[in-house]
Amino acid sequence: MTTNKLLGPETDKYLQQAIINFMNYTVSGGSMTVVSEEAAQAAAFVEEHVNLAAARKYRQELGGIFTNLEQLAAIPESRTGWMELLAPMVSRLDGGKLKALAPQTTWHNEVTPYVNGPECLEMLLDEIKNAQRYIHLSVMLFYNDHSGNLIANELLSALARGVKVRLLVNHMITAMGYEKNLKVGQFTEISEKLEAAGGKVLDTANSKYPAEEWRKLRQELELRGVPEHILFFQDRVQEEGEMGGLNIVDHRKFLIIDGTTSIIGSINIGDQYTFATPVESPSGTQVNGTKQGIPSREEEWHDGCFRVRGAAARTFNAVFHSRWILLGGDMFDPGDCFYDPDMDMNFGEEECTLFASFPGNPVNLIQQYYLDLISYAADETVIVNPYLIDQDFWDRLKGLGPECSCNLTICNPLHVTDHPTNLAAVRSNMYTPFCNGVSFYDYSDTGRFSHWKISYDKRSHAVFHGSYNINERSACHDFELGLLVKGQAFADKVKELIDYDLGVSRKITDKKEFFKHPWLHPSTYLNKVTRNYT
Fold first, then answer.
1. d(C-alpha 39, C-alpha 45), whole Å
2. Contact 358, 233 (CB under 8 A)
């Protein structure tokens, strides 16, 4: 960086990053009122001096995130010297809150993509087997089935050799099982074994406290030294928690091992996701040296994850730490050398930016990333997602002209789905985008469900992957996590995997498969009344 030329030699790295965080959140439409009145005044200053619409478009041209001051200085149609005037305002704000709200970027990571159960399961087992200090796992579902027990047994082995193990799991939703099999939902059998061996397990099902309980707990945590920016998260969740918090779900799926390895994806743990059965591959197609195919059994879902080596582990661990402390877990310092080892973190070439969304945040930055991705698509852009129910997404897509729409491709399991209204949402909204040039592929032509959530942006060589569904739940109610990875070689690898999926899917060619007049179809109304909860 040459930031000293922009703001002077007295500008330290902490302030530089605070300015970047401030601008990323503000440009995405985030309200600085949640930080402080002084932050809101700084945001008002930016609105007067920076063309935010131009900034948003320019940021997406860069790949969806500002990472340095040079990029901010190059925002089109902005007044000269605005950043120098903004710097002292930002210096007086709570930098911890700004960091908590905005995506965080690390460099020199090595990222490897994995798809389908056997490949993901083998990698997970190997990584747990190689753990030496600690394992932090956050997942919505952890099933008591074949692959769930394989992973549980490997965690028990890690505990036996002295590795610290902490797990965040939603016991209540896991207990529902799958395929009408409640036995696989008996996670308590696994958690009791882990806890007896010294592991720590917390239930994420109750993410909102009764008001008086939170008031007392907040005071207690503050006395124990928990930073304000972590307590701030729960304050927002408390405000969001309608229906006693039952509509709030921690949907994130990620893992940190030894401070150097992170895993993020759309997979939960269990045979629906991490199945061991070999995939069916009639053509024998290989991508990156791995055979591609579709799941052999109907109950097995097509899905995937990324393994990341490098400094990105710090950003993942900060997210885990916040949730762990707020749910009543034991205190630990993620900055301690045990959790953040002092070593060379130059593992590869990928730039990684972690996006975290949470209930009560005035703006969902993952949702905004997707909206910007489609709004400014100027080259090939592909979105693969199992649930296309977010009306903000559809309204934005329907408002695009042919010059942008022709660059967009969507892949979704239209007819083979576990969601009651995904088909209705797509058919009710896709007619106009289709006529304008958006391509649509139906993965359910394979006879299988795809739970993979990934996007590809050719212009900036960027890939986004994580737990986020393009639905109202992920946008408004749930804890979500996604990783934006930039790097041409990596993006090209992922594009090959996506191309395989498009190749086995059915490309829709007839606009009549979508509703020209959705108000004539009853399923349209069912989708509207259920989209916030299903």
1. 10
2. yes
Using CA atoms, how far apart are residues 384 and 443, in angstroms rounded to an integer?
Answer: 10
Q: Which two tokens stand for residue 44?
A: 């008002």
Alpha-helical segments (H) within 327-376? 365-375
Nearest Cα to Cα of residue 163 among 133, 191, 126, 141: 133
Three-state DSSP at 237 gives helix
Q: How far is residue 45 CA from its own chain's centroid?
A: 31
- Cα(510)–Cα(26) distance, rounded to whole angstroms? 41
Q: In this structure, is the dihedral angle defined by the CA atoms of residues 36, 37, 40 and 42, taken in order, positive or negative? A: negative
Spatial distance between the Cα atoms of 481 and 250, rounded to a whole number of angstroms: 10
Report how far residue 257's alpha carbon sits from residue 248's, in angstroms, rounded to the nearest whole number: 27
DSSP state, residue 473: I
Residues 6+ apart with CB under 8 A from 99: 17, 18, 21, 229
Q: How far apart are the C-alpha atoms of 330 and 332, rounded to whole Å? A: 7
CA 493 vs. chain centroid, Å, equals 20
- Rounded CA separation 359/355 (Å): 14
Diameter of the chain measured on Cα atoms: 64
pLDDT digit of tens for each residue in the chain (534 aa)? 344 456 655 568 999 999 999 999 999 999 999 899 999 999 999 999 999 999 999 999 999 999 999 999 999 999 999 999 999 999 999 999 999 999 999 999 999 999 999 999 999 999 999 999 999 999 999 999 999 999 999 999 999 999 999 999 999 999 999 998 999 999 999 999 999 999 999 999 989 999 999 999 999 999 999 999 999 999 999 987 654 455 799 999 999 999 999 999 999 999 999 999 999 988 888 887 888 999 999 999 999 999 999 999 999 999 999 999 999 999 999 999 999 999 999 999 999 999 999 998 889 999 999 999 999 999 999 999 999 999 999 999 999 999 999 999 999 999 999 988 899 999 999 999 999 999 999 999 999 999 999 999 999 999 999 999 999 999 988 999 999 999 999 999 999 999 999 999 999 999 999 999 877 767 776 667 666 555
Angle at 144 between CA 304 and CA 317, to 5 degrees: 50
